[in-house]
Every structure is written in C-alpha cells, then in structure tokens.
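#structure-requests
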Amino acid sequence: MRGPDSVLPRNAAVLIWVPVLLLAPLLNLPAAPVRLGGIALVLLAAAGAVAGVLLSWPDPTRPSMAAWLLAALAVTAGSLLWNGWAPAWLLVAMVAGLALPVRVVWATIPLTAVVAAYLQYRFDPAMEQALTRVFVVALTGTTAAVLNRLLITNRELRRTREQLAAAAVAQERERVARDLHDVLGHTLSVIVVKAAAVRRLLAVDPAAAAEHAGDIESVGRSALTRVREVVHDAAAPSVETELAAARDVLSAAGIAVTASPEFAVDPKLGEPLAWALREGVTNVLRHSGASRCRIELGRADGMVRLSIADDGVGHLGERADGLGGLAGLRRRLQAAGGGLETRPGTAGFTLIAWVPDAD
C-alpha cells in the first residue's frame, strides 16, 4: 500500500468510504418523480468526492476545489429533499480536508458541520442529535485534514533528505576531485622536475643524479600515501611542510627561492594556506618559466596572508569554466572565511591567499 509519495494509501483511505457513506441516501430515495433526480444527486456527490480526492495531490487545485463544491452542493440539495443524507456529510468533510487549501479548510470544516447538523435538525429536531452531528462531522474533517498534511510533510521531508544526500555526494565528489588535483598535480610536477635533474646531472655528477632518483622514488611512495589519505579525507598538509617542500623542488628546478621567515599558523587555518602554497608552487613549476620565486607569509588586518610571486612569462589566471585548480582553491579558501587574489601579467604572476588570523 506504499505507493509513490504515499498517494495510494491516502486516496484509498478516503475513497473506500464513498459507497459506504452514500448508501444511506440511495436506500431512502423518495418516490417518483423525484427518484431519478435523487439518483442523479447521489452520483454527482460521488463524482465530486472522487474527483476532489484525486485532483488534490500533492496540493489542492482549482479543479479539486470545484469538485468538492459539486459534492457539497449535491449533498445539500439532497438533504433539503429527503432524509438519509447524514452519513454523506462525513464524506463532504473528509474530502474538504484534502481538496481545499489550508487557509480555507479550517473555516470550511466547522461550517460544514454546522450545515450538516442544521439540515439533520429539520427532519429530527433533537438538539442532542444536532450537537453530536456537529462534533462527528467536524472531527472527521479535521482528522482527514491533519493526516493529509502529515503525508504531505512526510513527502517533503523525504524529498529534502534525498536532495541533501545528493548534495553530500556532489560535495564529496568535488572534494576528492579537488584534493586529487592538488595532490597529484603537485607530485607529478615534482617528479618531472626531479627526472629532468637526473637527466641533466647523470653525466656530470652521478651521485647527485642518484640522490634525485631516490627523491623520485620517495615522492612516488609519498604520492600513494597521499592518494589514500585523500580518499579517506585524511589529507591535511601544513604550511611548514609545504614551505620546505617548495624550497626543495623549486631549487631542483633551478628557480631561486626567497621565503619570508616562518611563524606558527593555527593548523585548522593553515591547511587552506598549505593547499594554496602547493597550488601556487605547482603553477610556477608548470607554467612560469621563472628564474626567481618569492614566497611571503605575514599577518595584516586580522588575516594571515600568503603571497607567491615569480618573474616568469605570466599566466592567464583562472579558467572561465571554474574547473581549474585556482577555482577549486578559491572555493577552499572561501569556505575557511578567506579569499584568493591573482595578478596575472606579461612579466610574472602573483598569487595572494588569506584566511582569518586565530590570534
């Protein structure tokens, strides 16, 4: 009975009562010539009730409201002509709880109960019976309206949960893609630089070439570990480690490095800067053709700022589609409350990253 969006059990719970509650007026039909008109009224009430229920999911519509009104008018007309329509008012109240908007239904159900009691009172003038009719009709309509709202709320919660799950998957996919880009892009650039150094030194300084070859092996093993850490969300570089690695790899590539004095950075705030340092150095190795690179780390205006500037051929900056390493780095820094600025030019490139200072 669990149909899509709970519509099947909800509809069945109301529609199963249509023949039951409309049986009484059929069994008490007046004599001819009103009999045929009475049957028509019962059929109109049934059609209006069924249409009102079916057209009101997930939200009431104008057709569902018109269908309910048709059922209510048919039951009212029948109640004015002959006795036996009392159970039909329960159906009118139930359908009102489904077919009418919330802002209307809470006024309509009590009114329906009062009209039902008044029309019943015309044939059976007993106050106790009338008050009981008001209570029963109002309770029936209110119950239907509350259960309908619960089903709709459950549907919305389920869809929200699905959307949150999809967003979590997309966020995790973006994290893995960004971290793999940052980790492997940097590592592969280091391997390329070290391999070039091995080739350059092999004939003139075999010992130095062997040392660089050992570094390639070490970097490769480290890359495997870092990939595992990325997959398990455990890759958290530090500014100190990345700065030492930057000095080493830039020097191996023949790029003179100037770095500002180091100071302690809060690990949680330093992680985005460490990623920025890795991405900036990787871009210097890949694109700049620079002979000099200056790395500065300092505090200013409540921010910890990292600057990486080279004297190379320049860089076009971020990709327009937002898929490059700089775009991912910008999102990472913004998530930490910081930001990224790039200053591309024809004579060098400068990357500036910042995060709030914990001190």
